[in-house]
Predict the structure.
Amino acid sequence: MNPTLPDGAQTDLVVPLVLGAHWYEDDPGGLHRYVADLFTALRRVGLHPRAVVSGPAASAPFGVVAGGHFARPFPLRLWAYTRALDRSALTGVTVIDAHFAFYAVYPVVMGRLRDLPLVVHFHGPWAQESKASGDPSGWRLSAKRKIEMSVYRRARAIVVLSNAFKELLVHGYGIAPQLIHVVPPGIDLHHFAPGNRVDARSRLGLPAGVRVLTAVRRLVPRMGLDVLIDAWAQLQPDDPGSVLLVVGDGPDRRNLEQHAARSGVGGSVRFLGKVDEETLVRCYQAADLSVVPTLALEGFGLVVIESLACGTPVVVTDTGGLPEVLGPLDPSLIVPAGDAGALTRRIRAAFDGTQPLPDEDRCRAHAESFTWPVVAERHRAIYSRAAQPASTRIRVVYLDHCARLSGGELALLRLLPSLNVDAHVILGETGPLVDELRKAGVSTEVMPIAESAGSIGRELVRPSRLPVSALAHSAVYVGRLAARLRQLEPDLVHTNSLKAALYGGASARLASVPVVWHVRDRISDDYLPVSARRLVRAAARILPAAVIANSQATLDTLGPAGVGGSAIASPLGFPPSITARPSGQYPFRVGIVGRLDRWKGQHIFLDAFAKAFPDGSERAVIIGAPIFGDTGYESELKRQVAALAIEDRVEFRGFRHDIEDELRGLDVLVHASVIPEPFGQVVVEGMAVGLAVVAANAGGPAEVITDGVDGLLCPPGDADALADALRRLAADPALRAGLGDNARERAQDFTAERIARQVMAVYRSTLGKRLGDERTP
């Protein structure tokens, strides 16, 4: 029998059986609340979840079976739990979702559920938490660790709430990162909501005009409440009437009460113990500030978003997942763990106005980004994937030396979600790409490359100029990466940059893993010195099992490589428009997009604009910024604008994240690179929004555009020809509209889904040649 579903909910073939610990109303705590809220959210998106928990769970909804009592000794609990599992209806269950290793070990390792696909939620390291709580028994800790490992190693997928706990699983438990999914939790935004602070304080017996801090924690040493009490003792003289509410219970309560008394603040610290749900919300609403002073092993911190949802700001430590939760709201709210002085200074600065706290609206808005419907849909996908036979997905490790949001890195970010693979990305540096990949749900780690090796420019790739230290560090890195690949056991390695092609190709060879080079740079004398060009072409005959280039023009510069090559364009970052552009705007706007670099030809663009429109209302828009801090060319462009007397009609927009919106504000897009562009991503982006595009007739853009059909082509570096094209387009709105309509159709060839199918074909071909077609999906 299925539970009653909300109106309009969709049914699904996925039927998860959730193995929880205790029901939240019986034993309040972050893990138990999470299980209850997830169960409800799964029902609301149309799944038919079932659950087994340690009872009594009298208030649990239909579909939850309770066994025994959560307060009984472990052996009795396990026996009752197993009996409850045997009594529950398992017909139709397609996947197991275990939330506590102790209760899962018998049914999923030895019992009747061992043949079903297993998803595990890792809420924390059981053995490590026991040790941190003061358990001195070596054999108990060892037994807990073995129980954990026996469950985790059977999992087809493991869900964690933060990247911090993903790192713990990878490096502390040896779990393959491709199996780990980072899915932050949701929050009940109806239950946890802003309220009347005066009323909340009145109901809690607190004076209306005093300062109130709240700490909602389990009272164990690793929660750092002793550090908070130390900070409170320093703050108390500033505001003698203030109150610290400590909500929660645990074995450390007596020690904390005594510590508060010894510190002289026993009268201003109120230990409330366990409270009901309504009182918990009032504690958040009554507070000026919440504090989460955890010392270790904090996977996420549900109390952070509970407080924020009530409109109350939070100060946290830099432990575990806490910075991931709060950093996007205000990094200044994060202080070093265990540092009572730093905690004191941050709270004092908040209250004296020198470092204000986010207001109620900002706190609430940040909490609203954690929604249970999104979490439930992520789980639907994880359950479905776990239920697939393990052999149907290729395991691919992607390598890139760079973590900046440059062209090749953006192309990888856009491609990965559309590939039907188990992907893991290893980057050679930290940077914004790390966060963007993780936001997209892509497994990512950083293996830093030594600066002496990572900073080698192409001009240094000569026998007489290569530093010995750089060679040594590169060799060490190749060995380390090869060892990591052996641990990960991928089917393929896919390199995404030229440096990664060389060091990644060597590492993959050592690890006996076939490598696919993705070449995004022209291997020609206008980009690389002779020695570097020879090195890359020689390596192309030895290292890769296959080569992908972003255009045929790029592929041709690689020379006669020893393997087959495929020209596959980079994917669009947004879908092509489905409707025609509106009629021309006023004033007429011509734009160029790209980093400010001489070879990108912004100076040619300005010359052409001045020649095409020596006076009038037309405007030139330059979108982009220098990279690596080199502002010399930008200054040169501004001097050129002044010399051409067009300052009032040229706009420097700088780097923009919202490139689609920027393009929609133009009438014509210009691509003016003076040397052949390997691909020209912005050309396709302009076409996707229906712009008339004028591009240099060389390299990738010449393969994308059919001259006079879906764009116009001009000789590279020819300002006169470009000026003629701009005058022609400005005078003929019908021509612009016709080119734009055809351009939108052409852009359909560059969607992420289409590009992904071409890349998958290369993967299958490569694995088929190496392992036989039976290994390829």
Summary: The two ends are 36 Å apart (CA to CA). The longest helix spans residues 468-488. The first strand starts at residue 16 and ends at 22.
